[in-house]
Amino acid sequence: MKNNNIRFIQGNEACVEGAIYAGIDFFAGYPITPSTEILEHLAARLPQKGGKFIQMEDEIASMGAIIGASLTGKKVMTATSGPGFSLKQEALGYACMAEIPCVIANVQRGGPSTGNPTHVSQGDVNQARWGTHGDHSIIALTASNHQDVFKITVDAFNMAETYRTPVVLLLDETIGHMREKLVIPEPGELPVVERLRTSVKGGVDYHPYLPRDDGRLPMSDFGGEHRYNVTGLFHDMWGFPNNNPNVVGGLLRHLVDKIENNVNDICMYKEYWLDDAEYILISYGSSARSAIHLAKNRRARGIKIGVLELQTLWPFPTEMIREKCAGAKAVIVVEMNMGQVVTQVKNAVDNPNSVFLANKISGELISPEDIKSLLRMIQGKGV
Amino acid sequence: MKNKKFDFKDYIRQRFFPHIWCPGCGHGIVLSSLLRAVHELGLNKNEIVITSGIGCSSRISGYVDFHSLHTIHGRALSFATGVKLSKPDLKAIVPMGDGDALAIGGNHFIHAARRNIDITAIVMNNRIYGMTGGQFSPLSGCGKQATTAPYSTIDREFDVVDLAKSAGATFVARSTVFHANECKDIIKKGINHKGFSVVEILTQCPTYYGRKNKEGDAVQMMENYKTNTVKIGSKKLEKNPGLIQRGIFVEKNDVPEYCEAYDRIIETAMKGQA
Amino acid sequence: MVKDKIIQHLIEKEWCKGCGICVHFCPKQVLELDSNGKVEAVRPEDCIACMLCELRCPDLAIQIIENQEKEYEKQ
Question: Which residues contact B44 (CB under 8 A, 6 or more apart)?
């Protein structure tokens, strides 16, 4: 019997399936390698369920369009890579400031600039956090296999709606283009969060930017009874521009706190053999596949090694990492950049001198062998 | 509210008045004309989304009691495209300055026109960047004075009407703030038009453009709109071809509107599923 | 019963920035700027309710109210 829920597809398609499961209504994008398949598949899938797809004139416009669509009450997403992610940064900051739920998938390729379009990299971790100007907080999620790509895509939509914020999906070229099995969960198997809408009746003063006691901000769709203002300027609880020092300071604090204070709820990770691990590999995305492979292999030889796979990169799960690494002799961060997560890990652990970087920046996927050479050096066994 | 006598106060957020625009700035007249147009069309305030970018003109969105979306510089049309396509029942109005619409936002302008999405773009053309203090814009033209052209401009200007026409806008018109009634009528037609409408309104910036270019005060600049413009095809053009023409240049109703065209895509895609 | 048209100039002095556009374009010289540089209707009886001041006021500070409700009962 054919099971339509089992698919053999690219990671980019797994992301599309996750978005559909989460209830995406609107997608705007622009072709760019290696994320284009997300655009292509949603062009076909969205109108089948009455949703809207638009190919915009550029990356900036795509970001603008999803923000506009989100305000009419739709679940929205865009997808891009390297240069396109750079172009989206101003509007991404707008979505942070105006608290617009939206999902931005960045299938990472080598950079800077045009870089290495068809090869893998994880060089945009810090850009996801700090790419737009000014203080703010952001959520960025990642995954190392298609089942998890599906799940974190659903999570990304859920978090965007829960926290009224842009959520970045940091995939990478290997995950995006690799084909593997995906089992699509049945409806109801994974939680799907719907937008929280205000219960304030028309004609009654509605405050789109006044958080409830639980920190959430119920929204009202454009076209509804509440006519309010949305701006990228610092604004009061009605959304009107305001540069009163208390308003400015209070809003910035709110934008950061609503995410950083919920780090435990946002923080997702997987762990392998950590209970007795003397050596801990911390990794994420496609690099984590090599880390897990190596750990499994070394375990067979009696080495007490485990893997902590991060799925939430931002807000950075500092406390969790400190706790998990407390008993380790050495922590090796495996990533494909010049050391972006390793800096955060060094800040997190009690003994930063025990943190090492195993990286690869050549556009090739980091291999178990690459990690093994470093591990042997740390173990004092030579290369 | 169609039958009620027009009253500004029914359409504005009074607590933000007096507005931030300089004495004599034409932008207030554009605002006034827009509000009258909305009133005469009998539109419900809940069905209007006004989306703007950055600049003096863009402040208009904060003053009107509609759904208002004050976005980033040059990108208002892309945000409005998302609003309109995701909820086509809404009326999308996008007031923009000349720099906002045609320098940083030039790409969005031509592509919105090409798609023929039902948005009314109002280009408030004062030929200068006012908010930042008087730099030349892509509509200033040659031989003008600006803070970034202390020896006069060498940049040629766009003709908004020609540009909108070539980009495929299906409604293209021009008026001035001197011709406030005509301006209102043209905005009305632009809003009513199903498709991408471009309404260029010449509006004075006495503070920067007028002063720098010795064009006099607001009153004098408005007098100039009277003397330097004519209705489309006026006989005066024979003697003086340099006069700026006002009126409706394009009004096409045979081009598919983008949201409607997409609805047919949905029908096709859904059939394939069945 | 006779209807008499009364024309009122509703002026928001707080909003008026004194640009003088209304004063200049008024065909009947009804308006002037006062000592504070704000517009006032000094000859309201001359007003023909052409609305040019209201239409061209950049500050939304003038409204012309044509009141037709004043009615005289003829005995």
Answer: none
Look at the block and give the residue holding tokens 């539109």. Answer: B43
Our CA dihedral for A283, A286, A291, A294, rounded to 10 degrees, sits at: 180
Is B90 close to A222, i.e. CB distance below 8 A? yes
CA–CA dist B27, B205 (Å, integer): 9
pLDDT (average), residues A102-118: 97
C-alpha triplet A284, A287, A293: angle, nearest 5°: 110
Q: Quote the distance between the C-alpha of residue B26 and its chain's center.
A: 13
pLDDT (average), residues C47-61: 97
Would you list the domain boundaries of chain A? 6-183, 271-378
Gap between the Cα atoms of A131 and A95, Å rounded: 13
| DSSP three-state, residue A281 | strand
pLDDT (tens digit per residue) in B226-246 = 999 999 999 999 999 999 999
**Chain B residues touching C64 at Cβ < 8 A:** none
SS3 at position B209: helix
The CATH class that applies to domain C2-69 reads alpha beta
CA-CA distances (angstroms) from residue B244 to B167, B177, B234, B236, B241? 21, 14, 10, 11, 8
Q: Say yes or no: domain B8-273 is CATH 3.40.980.10.
A: no
Q: Which CATH class is domain A6-183?
A: alpha beta
Asked if the Cβ–Cβ distance from C17 to B218 is below 8 Å, we say no
Identify all chain B residues contacting A63, using CB atoms and an 8 Å cutoff: 78
Dist. CA B273–CA B199, nearest whole Å: 42
For the A271-378 domain, the top CATH level (class) is alpha beta
Would the CB atoms of C58 and B180 count as touching at under 8 Å? no
- Domain boundaries defined on chain C: 2-69
pLDDT in tens, A276-297: 999 999 999 999 999 999 999 9
What's the pLDDT tens digit per position in A250-274? 999 999 999 999 999 999 999 999 9
| CB atoms inside a 10 Å sphere around CB C12 | 19
